[in-house]
Structures are given as C-alpha cells and as structure tokens.
Amino acid sequence: MHKDAEPHEDGGKREHVGAHMVSVFINGKRHVVPEHATIMRAIEYAGHQIIRGAGCREGFCGACGTIYRLPGDYKLHTGLACTTLVKEGMSLTQIPSVPMEKAVYDLETLTPDVSAILQVYPVTFRCVACGTCTKACPQGLPVMDYIQAAMRGDVAAVADMAFDCVACGLCALRCPAEIIQHEVGILSKRLTGRYLRKESRELDDRIAEVRSHKYDGEYRKLMAMDKAALSKLYYARDLEP
Ligand code: SF4
Ligand code: SF4
Ligand code: FES
C-alpha cells in the first residue's frame, strides 16, 4: 500500500540525462526509474511512500510480496519487492497482505502427525498437486512437496522444507485449492520443535546464561548506540555460511 510522498527536490523530473533508466508501470501508471533499482526502490523513486508492504528490506520478513508481468510474457510472476530488480516494461503491484483465517490451536493437545493437519488445516487435503505454489515461491522452496508431506503427516519433513519460508503468502495467493501453505509450514515447525527434535543442551545453557544476566552489559551498550553505529555493527556481523 502506498501513499504519495512529498515531491523530490528535483521537482519530479527524474529522467536524468545519461542515467540508465527503464519504464515500469506501478499500479497501472508509467514511471521512469533507474534500471538497477529493486521494485521497492523504484516505487519510492516514483514518489510513493510505502506505508504497508515493507519491513526488513533484505529478503527476510516477507512483507513485500509483489506480482508483475513483463512485455510479451503471459505469465504472472511473483517476487519480493526488496530483492527483485525492475525490468523494462514491467507492470507491477504489491500485495502487502494475503487475507487468511489463522487457526487457533493448543500445541499441547495435538500430536505430531497427520491428525494435527486434519484438525487444524483440513483444507490442506484439497491439494491437487499442480505445482503452482512451488513456481510462485520467491524463496525457491518446494512448496508442493511440503504440502504433500503434510498430507502424509510427515511434519518433520514439512518443517525442513519450509524452514526458509518468509510467509509472504504468494503461494497461497496462487493456489487453486485455496490452501494457506505457510501456515501449514508454521504448524509443522511448531509440532516438530515441541515433539520431535531432541532437546538442545546448548540452548538450555544459553538460557541459563541470559537468566544469570551475563549479557546485560552488552545489551546496555547496544541500546546506547545510534542508528549509524548499530547499522555498521549489523553489517559487520558473522554470517553462517
Ligand atoms: S512458501 Fe509461500 S509464503 Fe513461504 S516464502 Fe514461499 S511463497 Fe512465500
Ligand atoms: S498450488 Fe495448491 S493445489 Fe497446487 S500444488 Fe500447491 S498446494 Fe497443491
Ligand atoms: S521487505 Fe522484508 S522481505 Fe522484502
């Protein structure tokens, strides 16, 4: 969801001489934007302020689901606005949320097998194995396979396959059986964590350290930092390979 932002200082003239620009259609209106911009950057460059449909801006939170078409291509493509680059002639709109009814359940009353899927998300069994969800997933996850695993009650396999799901909802948007795949994934991850994974001694140790205030000094240091210092620290962090 966008609203018009204040005009830029260039008075709205953005077709800079010498810059490599492309034209895109945002919600049906043509805009000229830099060719290497992400969709999110292009929307903002065009003068919109994104007030819904942006979060981490790094491909992690799933808030920026977008659908688009390209010239001469009949397909409706899906992507995350913060990581997908614009292309000449792209016609796009953001889908900041996919309507759904989230089931309320008590994990302690469920068992980690097919009965839980049947009880909480019976719609899962409407899957016709068309593969549309897998094609729609911007994370490249085998969505159809994890729904099939859910139908077999193999919640541990679902949890593994859906591990990198960012809950953008684009699979659910395209599913002809109207399944909410990511919620099936979340349920399976919870069941797996609660019942199937071995207890972690490392986690227990870390919780004990937190409770003994071992990290309070470091937290205080972080809380006192300004945005620039926090940002520098964040990007210098060690990432798991
Ligand atoms: S599985 Fe669905 S909700 Fe999760 S990232 Fe893929 S498309 Fe988005
Ligand atoms: S889009 Fe829906 S019906 Fe098709 S494979 Fe995925 S879950 Fe099944
Ligand atoms: S803004 Fe978080 S995934 Fe795009």
From TrEMBL:
Annotated CDD domains: fer2 (cd00207)
InterPro entries the UniProt entry points to: 2Fe-2S_ferredoxin-like_sf, 2Fe-2S_ferredoxin-type, 2Fe2S_fd_BS, 4Fe4S_Fe-S-bd, 4Fe4S_Fe_S_CS
GO molecular function: 2 iron, 2 sulfur cluster binding; metal ion binding
Occurrences of domain 4Fe-4S ferredoxin-type (ranges): 116-147, 155-185
Segments forming domain 2Fe-2S ferredoxin-type: 20-98
Keyword Iron-sulfur: yes
Presence of the UniProt keyword Signal in the record: no
UniProt keyword annotations, A-Z: Iron, Iron-sulfur, Metal-binding
Protein name per UniProt: 4Fe-4S ferredoxin
Natural source organism: Blastochloris tepida
